Protein backbone atom coordinates (compact mmCIF):
# COMPACT_ATOMS: atom_id res chain seq x y z
CA UNK A 1 0.00 0.00 0.00
CA UNK A 2 1.32 3.41 -0.99
CA UNK A 3 1.17 6.29 1.47
CA UNK A 4 0.61 9.59 -0.30
CA UNK A 5 0.84 12.93 1.49
CA UNK A 6 -1.52 15.74 0.56
CA UNK A 7 -0.54 19.33 1.25
CA UNK A 8 -1.35 22.79 -0.08
CA UNK A 9 -2.19 26.31 0.98
CA UNK A 10 -5.09 27.01 3.30
CA UNK A 11 -8.38 26.75 1.40
CA UNK A 12 -6.63 25.32 -1.67
CA UNK A 13 -8.98 22.32 -1.70
CA UNK A 14 -7.06 19.56 0.08
CA UNK A 15 -10.20 18.06 1.63
CA UNK A 16 -12.01 18.27 -1.70
CA UNK A 17 -9.16 16.49 -3.49
CA UNK A 18 -8.82 13.90 -0.69
CA UNK A 19 -12.52 13.12 -1.07
CA UNK A 20 -12.03 12.62 -4.83
CA UNK A 21 -9.24 10.11 -4.17
CA UNK A 22 -11.49 8.30 -1.69
CA UNK A 23 -14.23 8.05 -4.32
CA UNK A 24 -11.67 6.33 -6.57
CA UNK A 25 -10.83 3.82 -3.84
CA UNK A 26 -8.21 5.43 -1.58
CA UNK A 27 -8.42 5.58 2.20
CA UNK A 28 -7.74 8.82 4.03
CA UNK A 29 -6.14 9.89 7.26
CA UNK A 30 -7.35 13.39 8.15
CA UNK A 31 -4.74 15.05 10.38
CA UNK A 32 -6.96 18.11 11.00
CA UNK A 33 -9.75 15.87 12.25
CA UNK A 34 -7.30 14.04 14.52
CA UNK A 35 -6.10 17.42 15.85
CA UNK A 36 -9.69 18.48 16.60
CA UNK A 37 -10.35 15.23 18.45
CA UNK A 38 -7.19 15.61 20.52
CA UNK A 39 -8.27 19.11 21.58
CA UNK A 40 -11.36 17.48 23.12
CA UNK A 41 -9.31 15.20 25.39
CA UNK A 42 -9.84 16.05 29.09
CA UNK A 43 -6.09 16.16 29.83
CA UNK A 44 -5.49 18.56 26.92
CA UNK A 45 -8.42 20.72 27.97
CA UNK A 46 -7.00 20.99 31.50
CA UNK A 47 -3.62 22.03 30.10
CA UNK A 48 -5.34 24.52 27.76
CA UNK A 49 -7.39 26.02 30.59
CA UNK A 50 -4.25 26.36 32.74
CA UNK A 51 -2.48 28.17 29.92
CA UNK A 52 -5.23 30.33 28.38
CA UNK A 53 -7.95 30.50 31.02
CA UNK A 54 -11.72 30.30 30.73
CA UNK A 55 -11.95 32.67 27.77
CA UNK A 56 -11.28 29.87 25.28
CA UNK A 57 -14.20 27.81 26.61
CA UNK A 58 -17.84 28.45 25.83
CA UNK A 59 -20.77 28.37 28.27
CA UNK A 60 -21.00 24.56 27.91
CA UNK A 61 -17.30 24.19 28.82
CA UNK A 62 -16.54 23.24 25.21
CA UNK A 63 -13.20 24.45 23.86
CA UNK A 64 -13.82 27.29 21.42
CA UNK A 65 -11.33 26.72 18.58
CA UNK A 66 -11.97 30.16 17.09
CA UNK A 67 -11.05 31.84 20.39
CA UNK A 68 -7.92 29.70 20.66
CA UNK A 69 -7.01 30.50 17.03
CA UNK A 70 -7.18 34.21 17.80
CA UNK A 71 -4.51 33.72 20.47
CA UNK A 72 -2.14 31.34 18.69
CA UNK A 73 -2.36 32.96 15.25
CA UNK A 74 -1.97 36.50 16.58
CA UNK A 75 0.75 38.06 14.41
CA UNK A 76 3.14 38.85 17.27
CA UNK A 77 5.91 37.19 19.25
CA UNK A 78 3.32 36.34 21.92
CA UNK A 79 1.16 34.63 19.30
CA UNK A 80 4.14 32.65 18.03
CA UNK A 81 5.04 31.59 21.57
CA UNK A 82 1.49 30.43 22.30
CA UNK A 83 1.42 28.50 19.01
CA UNK A 84 4.70 26.80 19.98
CA UNK A 85 3.11 25.79 23.28
CA UNK A 86 0.00 24.43 21.54
CA UNK A 87 2.13 22.47 19.07
CA UNK A 88 4.26 21.11 21.90
CA UNK A 89 1.05 19.96 23.58
CA UNK A 90 -0.75 18.31 20.67
CA UNK A 91 1.69 17.43 17.89
CA UNK A 92 3.29 14.39 19.56
CA UNK A 93 -0.24 13.02 20.13
CA UNK A 94 -1.27 13.71 16.53
CA UNK A 95 1.91 12.01 15.28
CA UNK A 96 1.17 8.99 17.47
CA UNK A 97 -2.40 8.76 16.20
CA UNK A 98 -1.29 9.02 12.56
CA UNK A 99 1.24 6.23 13.13
CA UNK A 100 -1.46 4.09 14.78
CA UNK A 101 -3.83 4.62 11.86
CA UNK A 102 -1.14 3.82 9.27
CA UNK A 103 -0.32 0.63 11.17
CA UNK A 104 -4.00 -0.33 11.43
CA UNK A 105 -4.51 0.19 7.69
CA UNK A 106 -1.45 -1.84 6.75
CA UNK A 107 -2.32 -4.66 9.14
CA UNK A 108 -5.98 -4.77 8.08
CA UNK A 109 -5.13 -6.67 4.90
CA UNK A 110 -7.22 -4.14 3.00
CA UNK A 111 -7.24 -4.36 -0.80
CA UNK A 112 -6.85 -0.59 -0.87
CA UNK A 113 -3.70 0.39 -2.74
CA UNK A 114 -3.35 3.90 -1.50
CA UNK A 115 -3.61 5.73 1.79
CA UNK A 116 -3.90 9.50 1.58
CA UNK A 117 -2.34 11.38 4.48
CA UNK A 118 -4.22 14.67 4.36
CA UNK A 119 -1.99 16.72 6.61
CA UNK A 120 -1.54 20.45 5.94
CA UNK A 121 1.47 20.58 8.27
CA UNK A 122 3.08 17.40 6.94
CA UNK A 123 6.40 19.04 6.08
CA UNK A 124 6.50 21.31 9.14
CA UNK A 125 6.16 18.21 11.34
CA UNK A 126 8.61 16.11 9.30
CA UNK A 127 5.96 13.51 8.53
CA UNK A 128 7.39 13.24 4.99
CA UNK A 129 9.41 10.31 6.36
CA UNK A 130 6.14 8.39 6.67
CA UNK A 131 5.07 8.83 3.05
CA UNK A 132 6.08 7.57 -0.38
CA UNK A 133 4.86 10.43 -2.57
CA UNK A 134 3.68 13.98 -2.07
CA UNK A 135 0.86 15.86 -3.80
CA UNK A 136 0.48 19.64 -3.57
CA UNK A 137 -2.97 21.10 -4.15
CA UNK A 138 -2.55 24.51 -5.75
CA UNK A 139 -4.92 27.46 -5.93
CA UNK A 140 -4.07 31.11 -6.40
CA UNK A 141 -3.98 33.45 -3.42
CA UNK A 142 -7.10 35.29 -4.62
CA UNK A 143 -9.06 32.04 -4.98
CA UNK A 144 -7.99 30.94 -1.50
CA UNK A 145 -8.92 34.32 -0.02
CA UNK A 146 -12.39 34.05 -1.61
CA UNK A 147 -12.88 30.47 -0.36
CA UNK A 148 -11.81 31.22 3.20
CA UNK A 149 -13.92 34.41 3.25
CA UNK A 150 -16.91 32.12 2.83
CA UNK A 151 -16.04 30.68 6.26
CA UNK A 152 -15.89 34.17 7.72
CA UNK A 153 -12.13 34.72 7.63
CA UNK A 154 -10.60 38.03 6.55
CA UNK A 155 -7.62 37.99 4.23
CA UNK A 156 -5.52 39.15 7.24
CA UNK A 157 -6.63 36.04 9.16
CA UNK A 158 -5.60 33.84 6.23
CA UNK A 159 -2.20 35.59 6.08
CA UNK A 160 -1.68 35.28 9.83
CA UNK A 161 -2.22 31.51 9.67
CA UNK A 162 -0.17 31.02 6.51
CA UNK A 163 2.72 33.00 7.95
CA UNK A 164 3.06 30.35 10.67
CA UNK A 165 3.59 27.67 8.00
CA UNK A 166 6.47 26.77 5.74
CA UNK A 167 6.59 29.01 2.65
CA UNK A 168 4.04 27.86 0.09
CA UNK A 169 6.54 27.91 -2.80
CA UNK A 170 8.85 25.69 -0.80
CA UNK A 171 6.00 23.22 -0.23
CA UNK A 172 5.09 23.23 -3.92
CA UNK A 173 8.73 22.58 -4.82
CA UNK A 174 8.84 19.43 -2.66
CA UNK A 175 5.83 17.79 -4.35
CA UNK A 176 5.85 14.87 -6.80
CA UNK A 177 2.59 16.13 -8.32
CA UNK A 178 0.84 19.50 -8.33
CA UNK A 179 -2.93 19.57 -8.77
CA UNK A 180 -4.27 22.91 -9.94
CA UNK A 181 -7.56 23.43 -8.10
CA UNK A 182 -8.17 27.05 -9.10
CA UNK A 183 -10.62 25.98 -11.79
CA UNK A 184 -13.79 23.93 -11.68
CA UNK A 185 -14.22 20.62 -9.89
CA UNK A 186 -14.48 18.59 -13.12
CA UNK A 187 -11.02 19.77 -14.20
CA UNK A 188 -9.63 18.86 -10.79
CA UNK A 189 -11.27 15.43 -10.89
CA UNK A 190 -9.69 14.75 -14.30
CA UNK A 191 -6.26 15.49 -12.87
CA UNK A 192 -6.95 13.40 -9.76
CA UNK A 193 -7.93 10.45 -12.00
CA UNK A 194 -4.71 10.86 -14.00
CA UNK A 195 -2.61 10.74 -10.81
CA UNK A 196 -4.68 7.83 -9.52
CA UNK A 197 -3.80 5.85 -12.67
CA UNK A 198 -0.14 6.66 -12.11
CA UNK A 199 -0.30 5.55 -8.49
CA UNK A 200 -1.57 2.11 -9.55
CA UNK A 201 1.75 1.54 -11.35
CA UNK A 202 4.00 2.63 -8.49
CA UNK A 203 5.49 0.76 -5.57
CA UNK A 204 6.54 1.93 -2.12
CA UNK A 205 9.68 4.04 -2.05
P1 LIG B 1 -8.15 23.99 4.83
O1 LIG B 1 -6.82 24.50 4.45
O2 LIG B 1 -8.89 24.98 5.63
O3 LIG B 1 -8.13 22.64 5.47
P2 LIG B 1 -8.77 22.80 2.31
O4 LIG B 1 -7.49 23.06 1.58
O5 LIG B 1 -9.00 21.43 2.81
O6 LIG B 1 -9.00 23.85 3.47
P3 LIG B 1 -11.38 22.62 1.11
O7 LIG B 1 -12.06 22.60 2.43
O8 LIG B 1 -11.34 21.37 0.32
O9 LIG B 1 -9.92 23.23 1.29
O10 LIG B 1 -11.98 23.75 0.18
C1 LIG B 1 -12.21 25.07 0.67
C2 LIG B 1 -13.58 25.54 0.13
O11 LIG B 1 -13.50 25.69 -1.28
C3 LIG B 1 -14.70 24.55 0.38
O12 LIG B 1 -15.87 25.27 0.63
C4 LIG B 1 -14.81 23.78 -0.94
O13 LIG B 1 -16.10 23.30 -1.18
C5 LIG B 1 -14.44 24.87 -1.95
N1 LIG B 1 -13.76 24.34 -3.15
C6 LIG B 1 -12.70 23.50 -3.19
N2 LIG B 1 -12.34 23.28 -4.46
C7 LIG B 1 -13.19 23.99 -5.25
C8 LIG B 1 -13.30 24.17 -6.67
N3 LIG B 1 -12.48 23.59 -7.54
N4 LIG B 1 -14.31 24.97 -7.10
C9 LIG B 1 -15.13 25.59 -6.23
N5 LIG B 1 -15.07 25.48 -4.89
C10 LIG B 1 -14.10 24.68 -4.40
Question: What is the strand and helix layout of this fold?
Answer:
Blueprint (H helix, E strand, L loop, with lengths): L1 E7 L5 H11 L2 E4 H9 L2 H11 L12 H8 L4 H31 L6 E5 L14 E6 L2 H9 L5 H8 L5 H7 L2 E4 L4 H16 L5
Parallel strand pairs: 1-3, 1-4, 2-3, 4-5
The structure holds adenosine-5'-triphosphate.
Features:
Rossmann fold, alpha/beta, binds adenosine-5'-triphosphate, 205 residues, 5-stranded parallel β-sheet, 9 helices
Ligands in the model, by name, code or SMILES, are: adenosine-5'-triphosphate
Name the average pLDDT.
94
Q: SS-based structural class?
A: alpha/beta
- Give a count of the beta strands, DSSP E runs of length 2 or more: 5
Strand arrangement within the widest β-sheet reads: 2-3-1-4-5
Number of helices: 9
Summarize the model shown.
It is built from 9 helices and 5 strands; from the N terminus they run E-H-E-H-H-H-H-E-E-H-H-H-E-H. The protein has 205 residues and is of the alpha/beta class.
How is this structure best described in words?
There is one protein chain. The chain is α/β, with parallel strands linked by helices and 205 residues long. It has one domain: Rossmann fold (3-Layer(aba) Sandwich), CATH 3.40.50. Helix content is 54%, strand content 13%. It has nine helices and five strands. The chain has helices at residues 14-24, 31-39, 42-52, 65-72, 77-107, 141-149, 155-162, 168-174, 185-200, and strands at 2-8, 27-30, 114-118, 133-138, 177-180. The chain has a five-stranded parallel sheet with strand order 2-3-1-4-5, sandwiched between helices. α1 (14-24) packs across α9 (185-200) and α2 crosses α5. The longest helix is centred in the middle third of the chain and has 31 residues, at 77-107. The chain starts with a strand and ends in a 5-residue tail after the last helix. The mean pLDDT is 94. The structure holds adenosine-5'-triphosphate. Residues 8, 10-16, 32, 120, 147, 181, 184-185, 188 line the site of adenosine-5'-triphosphate.
Amino acid sequence: MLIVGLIGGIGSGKSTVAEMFCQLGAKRIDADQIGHEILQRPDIQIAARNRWGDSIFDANAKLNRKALAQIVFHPSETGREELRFLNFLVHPLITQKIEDQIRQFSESGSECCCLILDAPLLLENHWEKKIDYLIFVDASQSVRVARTQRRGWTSAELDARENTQLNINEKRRMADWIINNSGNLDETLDHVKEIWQNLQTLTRK
